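User: Is it possible to get a 3D structure for a protein together with its bound compound? The compound here is fe (ii) ion. I've pasted both below.
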Amino acid sequence: MLLHLFFLLSLFLTFIDNGSAGITSTFVRTKFPAVDIPLENEVLAVPKGYNAPQQVHITQGDYDGKAVIISWVTTDEPGSSQVQYGLSEGKYDFTVEGTLTNYTFYKYKSGYIHQCLVTGIQHDTKYYYEIGNGDSARKFWFETPPKVDPDASYKFGIIGDLGQTYNSLSTIQHYMQSGAKSVLFVGDLSYADRYQYNDVGVRWDTFGRLIEQSAAYQPWIWSAGNHEIDYFPYMGEVVPFRSFLNRYPTPYKASKSSNPLWYAIRRASAHIIVLSSYSPFVKYTPQWHWLKQEFKKVNREKTPWLIVLMHVPIYNSNEAHFMEGESMRSAYERWFVKYKVDVIFAGHVHAYERSYRISNIHYNVSGGDAYPVPDKRAPIYITVGDGGNSEGLASRFRDPQPEYSAFREASYGHSTLEIKNRTHAFYHWNRNDDGNKVTTDSFTLQNQYWGSGRRRRKLNKNHLNSVISERPSTVWF
Ligand SMILES: [Fe+2]
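Assistant: Yes, that's possible. Here is the predicted structure of the complex:
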């Protein structure tokens, strides 16, 4: 009974607390400098053996989670693009043939990039797979998600602006302790574009080797940031996103997208929309047309959780990249509110920030209210651009903290979103606290579609009871 009362009280506070003063954490971390891990460090090492597969990573390969794309690189010779896989280690009943590509960047020649689409696999199943030949063959595994279902529980991680420093490594290692099953990556992967000439390609390779410890075993859902653009006129490299698109395929065709940089997937009880901050997105562009149709396809009866990923945050009170999200806000915020998006994750700003539910859809250039206001229909905006790259932290927040900003801190870290059922999810932001993982910002997220009024009352009480005993001890609304 007491638990029930506590839970109802916290739900009440959710509604009345919008707009209350937010928190600016003053925590300052000290341990690791923001420098890239040296090439000779063992975490970037090339796997032993002639032509051994390296930079192995997987991503979802279809709309509903019954396919994966497995990617890897060989360097001595093309070798095999086959994936052998099955339900037990070393016993592979299935073989599928992939494709091979490579590219040059300035005078750098990439390795042989293999991409293999594995289809027709079962939901909620662990698969073992092997790639490469002879003594150099390497073995991995992955788990498929539960089938798309409104009450499927699932734990996502959220990482952005990762890079390849010791802080990046901390983030990856802390994330791997979280028990999350898939990464929602909000752009800026390798920061290889901070290098010049052939080192750009070299640092894309080292990033691939750094993330393999996680990305070979579970899908990372990619969105592109500015550090994927790789625009180097003085090197003769002017075609945007070449390295990223050659190395990190996405299942864009499954959602009828015309471009790998924006697409959608459904996974367990979530519909995830990936947008590109650095592709045309204003009215009548391909991305705009696609998003308009994709929002219409969202069925909250099947996938209650509607999550959007983008690189540039719409709401950001850091001095870094302040207002850069305004153009996309003006293009899409109405849809985010109309379709009751639950949460929008972004990166770009190298700090952590969470907003209340707010919108600014009444602003217009000839009048109206030009300030964001509390709006129960609006998404929560979360910036997780704090993966730990070599540019360091964005430590100057604007003062005073805007009313829409609930919590902000300039530290490295990652987030997790643990969906329990159609009504509730637990969210955590985990700071890299000088090498230790410390949960710093947590709250219970109520689903925007099922969590409100009439629909919630229709639900069986069991949906609420099931989460009461598991909710986090620290709750921010
Ligand atoms: Fe960025």
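The first strand starts at residue 23 and ends at 24. Confidence is low (pLDDT under 50) at residues 5-19, 466-477.
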